[in-house]
Amino acid sequence: MQYVQYPFSILAIYYIFWGSYFEPNLNDVGFGVLCMGIAFAFSSMGDVTQISQKEEKLFASKKRFRRTYLYLLIVGCTCIFVTVFFISQKWTKNNELGDQFYQLGLNCFPLIIAVFFTLKQLIDKKQYHELKSKEVKQVIDSGLE
Questions:
Q1: Where are the alpha helices (H) located in 18-145, listed in sequence order?
Q2: What is the pTM of this model?
Q3: How far apart are CA 30 and CA 44, in angstroms?
């Protein structure tokens, strides 16, 4: 399922750039953000047993892991606040633009979910890495006896 992220990523890039630069329209940008959230959600469905060298270095350093964890947590909370702000624009004086921001805010929900899925996957990979490291250490210790 992890590879389903690529078509959604392409759609996200297309609609965000199209709605931002070529034909400015918040509805297109909103659809692009929706596709981006779906792509991120699918990207977090990877196998937790597949740990790259970069992730091993990350898990080896408590400080780097904590910094990455806090970064993802801040990104998730920021997405929540931006989404709430966009949704609240529906009740402003400019009704047409307010409705477009409201739709953009609704389209941000998959992005919020995807960020927290990614955070959960990071924690799961860390736990798997620690468990695997303990098993390797026990095998080495039992071999030395």
A1: 26-43, 53-60, 62-88, 95-107, 109-144
A2: 0.82
A3: 21
Q: How far are the Cα atoms of 72, 79, 96 from residue 109, in angstroms, in the given order?
A: 16, 8, 21
With 0-12 CB in 10 A as exposed, 13-18 as middle and 19+ as buried, what is 145?
exposed
pLDDT tens-digit map of 3-16:
889 999 999 999 99
The tokens for 78 are 């920021």
Q: Is residue 9 within a helix (H) or strand (E), and if so which, with residue range?
A: helix 5-17
**How crowded is residue 68: how many other Cβ atoms within 10 Å of its Cβ?**
17
Token reading at 141: 């210790």
In this predicted model, what pLDDT tens digit does every residue of 55-72 receive, in sequence order? 999 999 999 999 999 999
How does DSSP classify residue 21? I
* CB 101, CB 89: distance < 8 Å: yes
Q: Residue type for 132, please?
A: K
